[in-house]
């Protein structure tokens, strides 16, 4: 989202920096680490903001837009809470609402900065499955920041490791998410365990 240090970042073959805001929002959805709610609104109203890029300047949300928003809320376990004020939500509920808003936006590229913050394990798995679905079924791109290498190995195709000295390494998850590489990354020895095709890591 920031200007590149060199060259140009292309999105669908076009310079991303030159795209108007509405056009950019039709192509990529972004989830930040923190949610800011300066104004009061309901859960449904907040989820519907994901449809704004799809509407004309003076258009109102349609019945279909509301159905998309309600479906997204149900997918993250917030159905029945449409009329709740967002300021009454817990941290985990607010995070799930932000994810529902992104799903309502329905962009072909999702940029997710720590999407699992404030979420219990069951909701973490559900959220990752929610984004894995569009990636598998419609070719959506998903780029996310994760701090659990086991979940990255389970759900991602490729991983980019950012070392403390500024070095980076990128490769397929099978090749790069290993005990040797991660021990160097974290500065602490890890042991790798494989079970039914899944890989996890525990401290030595």
Helix-strand layout with pairing:
Blueprint lengths: L9 E2 L2 E2 L5 H7 E4 L11 H6 L14 H13 L15 H15 L3 E5 L7 H18 L2 E5 L3 H7 L2 E5 L5 E5 H4 L2 H8 L3 E6 L2 E6 L1
Parallel strand pairs: 3-4, 4-5
Antiparallel strand pairs: 1-2, 6-7, 8-9
Helix pairs in contact: 3-4
Would you kindly provide a written description of the structure presented here, covering whatever features stand out?
The chain is α/β, with parallel strands linked by helices. The chain has helices at 21-27, 43-48, 63-75, 91-105, 121-138, 149-155, 173-176, 179-186; strands spanning 10-11, 14-15, 28-31, 109-113, 141-145, 158-162, 168-172, 190-195, 198-203. Helix 3 packs across helix 4 (91-105). The chain starts with 9 loop residues before the first strand and ends with a strand.
């Amino acid at each position: 989202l920031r200007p590149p240090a060199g060259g140009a970042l292309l999105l669908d073959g076009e310079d991303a920096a030159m795209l108007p805001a509405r056009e950019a929002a039709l192509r990529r959805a972004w989830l930040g680490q923190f949610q800011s709610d300066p104004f009061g609104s309901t859960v449904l109203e907040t989820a519907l903001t994901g449809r704004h890029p799809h509407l004309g300047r003076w258009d109102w949300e349609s019945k279909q837009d509301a159905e998309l928003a309600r479906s997204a809320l149900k997918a993250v376990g917030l159905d029945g809470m449409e009329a709740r004020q967002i300021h009454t939500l817990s941290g985990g509920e607010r995070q799930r609402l932000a994810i529902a808003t992104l799903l309502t936006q329905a962009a072909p590229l999702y940029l997710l900065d720590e999407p699992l913050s404030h979420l219990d394990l069951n909701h973490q798995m559900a959220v990752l499955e929610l984004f894995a679905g569009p990636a598998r079924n419609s070719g959506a791109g998903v780029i996310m920041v994760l701090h659990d290498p086991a979940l990255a190995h389970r759900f991602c195709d490729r991983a980019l490791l950012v070392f403390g000295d500024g070095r980076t390494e990128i490769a397929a998850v099978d090749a790069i998410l290993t005990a040797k590489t991660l021990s160097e990354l974290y500065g602490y020895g890890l042991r790798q365990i494989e079970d039914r095709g899944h890989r996890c890591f525990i401290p030595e």
